[in-house]
């Protein structure tokens, strides 16, 4: 999963709700954590974004 795929899925109607968008963003970040070593800058950025994303998604009501 990557941002291009997420955008394509939005444009094609495969992602229709905020929850589906959130799921795919968190999947993308989880994959970045899984496939990049802790020393890699991608891992560091993905970890920070994942933590912030989980926090935001939990406190923001779904708009769908």
From TrEMBL:
Coiled coil: none annotated. Pfam families: Bromodomain. It comes from the Eukaryota. Gene3D superfamilies: Bromodomain-like. InterPro entries: Bromodomain (IPR001487), Bromodomain-like_sf (IPR036427). GO terms for cellular component: NuA4 histone acetyltransferase complex. PANTHER family: BROMODOMAIN-CONTAINING PROTEIN 8 (PTHR15398), BROMODOMAIN-CONTAINING PROTEIN 8 ISOFORM X1 (PTHR15398:SF4). This is Bromodomain-containing protein 8. It comes from Papilio machaon (Old World swallowtail butterfly).
